[in-house]
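Lecture notes, unit on binding sites. The following record was shown on slide 14. It pairs a sequence with adenosine-5'-triphosphate.
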Amino acid sequence: MTWAKKLVKSYRVEGGRFRRKDFDPGDTGELKSKEQAAELLAKGSARMAELQDKLYAQDRWALLLIFQAMDAGGKDGAIKHVMSGVNPQGCQVYSFKAPSSEELDHDYLWRTSRCLPERGRIGIFNRSYYEEVLVVRVHPNILANERVPPSLITKNIWKERFHDIRAFEDYLSRNGVVVRKFFLNVSKKEQKRRFLSRLDEPEKNWKFSAADVKERESWDDYMEAYEEMISHTATPQSPWLVVPADNKWYTRVVVSAAIVDALEDLNLDYPVVDAQKRRELLAAKRKLEKEA
Ligand code: ATP
Ligand code: MG
């Protein structure tokens, strides 16, 4: 087993009932220090850069990384640090906030479908269609404003949405879009600490939003929604990674390892040059060498 696979093994959920209490937000695995984590992150970045280069050259597979977390869970920081070593040309990041009126005029997968990664690319969703079974579930008034015909909103709506999302992700997998979903699992206590530091440190003030403190009041409802969501949408092809998120340095190592692991599973390699192409290369070389 590769180092990356070994590191992410216990955070990978690919079916069955998911219970948050079985996952410790403060876990740091076998790592003892930030320095050790920095070394591993550097190793992960170097490997990711190599694999991404092949992914791009081969132009067959795409990788879709979905990030979900409570506010201050560390999505932005994880995306920034983990992807810092990869070629920006091969990577696309999209953030999904409350939908616009144009977006509400369509089915809920529409806005994300338009942002799916092309073959050869890594696509990142900072929030996603999973909000449709999280914030929308926690606040029923949002659903009421979505313009779905009322007769279609029944007590089965969440089961139906899980079913549709699973089917959508199966469809993506069968088209060569590999999906990995990250739940950055931060504790309620650590969220409070991060909010307080946003209030206390002037350079972090801009990150603070009073709405985040309001959402915190629904913490338990969110946790229940996350448990249901992960239990119903984790599959072997499109697993969830429940990433310990109380220590940012560890979160980033796990995310990086999970991406490396997903890419390694594809057995990527540079396209093989056939005989015809080799003749062309040779001819081009001769021509260049003949120049004075
Ligand atoms: P940050 O706060 O770090 O800038 P963020 O992802 O929290 O990043 P915000 O603009 O604060 O960005 O929040 C986006 C909000 O949009 C979240 O509260 C999220 O729940 C909400 N949202 C996302 N998708 C939907 C959706 N489909 N329906 C309703 N609300 C949504
Ligand atoms: Mg926010």
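Take-home: The longest helix spans residues 34-58.
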